[in-house]
Design a protein that fits this description.
Length: about 425
Amino acid sequence: MFGLPTTATAPFCPSEVRGTVAVADNLAFWRKLLRFAGPGLLISIGYMDPGNWATDIAAGSHYGYGLLFAVLLASLAGILLQTLSARLGIAAEHDLAYLCRTRYPAAVVRVLWVFAEVAIIACDVAEVLGSALALQLLFHLPLWAGVLLTGLDTVIVLGLKGRGFRELEAIVFALVAVIAAAFAVELCLLPPDGAAVARGLIPSAELLRDPEAFYLAISILGATVMPHNLYLHSSIVQTRVLSAAPDAKHDAIQLATADITGSLLIAMLINGAILVMAGSAFHGVANDTADISDAYRLLTPIAGPAAAVVFGLALLASGQSSTITGTIAGQVIMEGFLNLKIPCWQRRLITRAVAIVPALIGVFWWGEAGVGRLLVLSQVVLSLQLPFALYPLIRLTSDQRLMQGFASGAVLRLSAWGLFIAITAANLWLVVEL
């Protein structure tokens, strides 16, 4: 944590990655920022995983650029909430899951843990299906075989064991770069209507009165602001070490805010690009059928075979990068809520085994055409879990004693509670409508 000596190399598991990157006081701000940057990038992976692809492609194919404002608002909400998470980790010097365990009754802690695990499994279902689709596109495997092959990604986790946290961040940065480059190519092949894109950024109450559009907007929110990312960020931000000077935490909060803001703006641009690509390629052409499960097939006649291959490579990079961060988040949640530590590969194997079951059921029950529906549903499940992570986060970051002088100000606190109320109300409406 802050003020501790650095560790030259750190294993992959979060219980042993504290204090891995030193940030000297005498550096210029931009050089401090370069040293501090990284946790935000790891968090941003959750904002562009296959679940995001599914919701963005469904929204773009059905409503064109009309739901771009949902991507924008969800991303801004994510920046606000991840800033709170980082502030908690820096000021309280503990992660959100640990603080919940030490401050709430055991029964409440168990409920919060179960909800957090459900969120991770829902996210992992999306990673399984997204990776399986990518393998089908690139290697022509049956979808069910691709689902089973995703169980082998435990090898990735084993390969990362003993890596320093900075190395891990570099790997994730490379995967993000692949995704960003892929969609830059896609937009060049399918140039959008700029005026229509600008209109899509303006919220539309009329559009949200359409139940299906509202369902997709909620799924975009769930795909963007993931509950387990709030637990994860409060932990990994502690891998940065400043001095023990009185203003060190203030500097760290500023640097963490800049880190997460920049990273999530990149994620927002990528998500926007996915929706815009779908709107350009499929809206009005394949309006009734286009989702992530058949998007690559529709891309071939519209933009050529190169576009479909690029799509598959980016989708595979998205699934594998999400695997890395999902494993760390699972460890943080298990250690924080239960004070239970197991090897990372075991944690990954358990989560993936649980996620493969509903993925296989969905593939065999609905067929390939139902994969997009299952992906969108998984993101709605994430949205339903979000209030259970938001409530303790907002309460804890408002606690002056715990935050040691860095509690949320009135504007930040009111904004966070406003988001909590809006998200909870939207979820309740959705549950009633379903």
